[in-house]
Amino acid sequence: MIKNPYNPTGPADPRYYADREELLSLFRNNVNAVTVTKGVTKPINLAVTGQWGMGKSSTLYKFKDILEKETDGARIFSSYVSLTPSHCKNADAFFACILETVFRDYESTVPLPNKLIQFIKDESIRLNRWKLKRMGASLPEFERAEEDLNAVNFKNTLLQFWIKLKESKFDMVVIMLDDIQYVLAQDNGEILYDLRTDMQSLSMKGALFTFVICTPESLFPQMRTVAEPFTRLFTRFELKSFYIDGTTEQIQKPLDVEKIPLKLSKSVIKEIHDITGGHPYFISLAMKHFIDKIPEGTGSASKFATVCPDIMDYFAEAKFNADFEKATDTEKEILLKIVTLRGPEFSPKEIGGRAKITYVERLVAKGLITKIDRGKYTLYTQLFAEYLRMKAAGAAR
Ligand SMILES: Nc1ncnc2c1ncn2[C@@H]1O[C@H](COP(=O)(O)OP(=O)(O)OP(=O)(O)O)[C@@H](O)[C@H]1O
Ligand SMILES: [Mg+2]
């Protein structure tokens, strides 16, 4: 059996991480500038946006890896926080989740001195007591009891922590918040204002924190509408589909890293690029299938379609069937109508006018349609269009 290093279901292994040089340089330069100048150059905050499966979480893991391996003796504390809807139910749950994760799942480029470990222990105990109290109070909502108003003070806790870190000659802290869009999904935009105020006060007090947030591209404008001053704190970087060089790297790197003796021709890579439109998730999915189907002992490959003639079924199974089922019956009709139109872009006018706008917006919210501009939309990937066409043809037969 040929080893199969492709895994579309989780973030990419940092050793396989492809392309995105500009973004990685931005991150590296930020970290270097802050650590080398001892904080005279202030840290920037980064907002990594991108469509579903474009590699946002993979990028955060890559950042973690850069901090571990490429920081040349700098003392950096970092934490990766994966937010969920329940963490974003209210401000308390949100800030408690961040602090808890920071004190539980952290990385440090140098071993933490005892007094920092003690600080973390004390804070964790404080947070846990606070949480336990809530569970005992038989309230369904995760909220703070009146007498505990100071139990979770995000800014002060981080500031105290920074003072301790600074005493131990730490250079900076990186906090990564993945999937921050859940705050918006629950109409809790005010949390972003709180976070902004805290980030600004930390910065004013000289605490060297870089915050990195990730959110789907389609929700960034909404975030701007809800909390414009918050978004202004971030340098935004949008992850888009790969050009052929990025696709080549994503395909080739795992083979090189794992020393898998399989030579892929340029034409097979081009074929995969064309099929997937350079979308990293689908490249990973296509490669997983391809390697599984290649007979053992194959040393080179020059054709994708002959090995995987059923690739669309494989994509449907992994993704599109579930996508389609997310749509209601009327939305399904709209999706099937879209693929009968001439181009990949469409306006609501072409599918039945104003009355259909709400449905289109719902499909945008479900991630199946992307808004390009005012009154201009497209399906989230052309592969999905192909799936819908196949579905329509199947039904017509
Ligand atoms: N730069 C990259 N190099 C290699 N593989 C990548 C890269 N970016 C993404 N991938 C592949 O795409 C898949 C999806 O990536 P990831 O989960 O990071 O996307 P995401 O944007 O966080 O998605 P979601 O919107 O679902 O959170 C990964 O499993 C990985 O295989
Ligand atoms: Mg993700």
Could you characterize the architecture of this molecule?
It is a single chain. This protein has three domains: 20-239, Rossmann fold (3-Layer(aba) Sandwich); 244-309; 313-396, Arc Repressor Mutant, subunit A (Orthogonal Bundle), CATH 1.10.10. It has helices spanning 21-36, 56-69, 91-104, 114-136, 154-167, 182-185, 190-204, 220-231, 244-257, 266-276, 280-293, 311-326, 329-338, 357-365, 382-396, and strands at residues 45-50, 76-82, 106-108, 172-178, 209-216, 234-239, 263-264, 300-301, 345-346, 369-373, 376-379. Helix 4 (114-136) runs antiparallel to helix 5 and helix 11 packs across helix 12 (311-326). Strand 10 (369-373) and strand 11 form a beta hairpin. The strands form three sheets. It has a six-stranded mixed sheet, with helices on both faces. The longest helix has 23 residues, at 114-136. The chain is globular. With 397 residues, the protein is an alpha/beta fold. The model is unreliable at 139-150 (pLDDT under 50). It is built from 15 helices and eleven strands. Residues 56-57, 178 line the site of magnesium ion.
Quickly describe the structure:
With 397 residues, the protein is α/β, with parallel strands linked by helices. The chain is 51% helix and 13% strand.
Topology of this protein?
Blueprint (H helix, E strand, L loop, with lengths): L20 H16 L8 E6 L5 H14 L6 E7 L8 H14 L1 E3 L5 H23 L17 H14 L4 E7 L3 H4 L4 H15 L4 E8 L3 H12 L2 E6 L4 H14 L5 E2 L1 H11 L3 H14 L6 E2 L9 H16 L2 H10 L6 E2 L10 H9 L3 E5 L2 E4 L2 H15 L1
Parallel strand pairs: 1-5, 1-6, 2-4, 4-5, 7-8
Antiparallel strand pairs: 2-3, 9-11, 10-11
The structure holds adenosine-5'-triphosphate (ATP) and magnesium ion.
The site of adenosine-5'-triphosphate (ATP) has 23 residues, from helix 2 and helix 11.
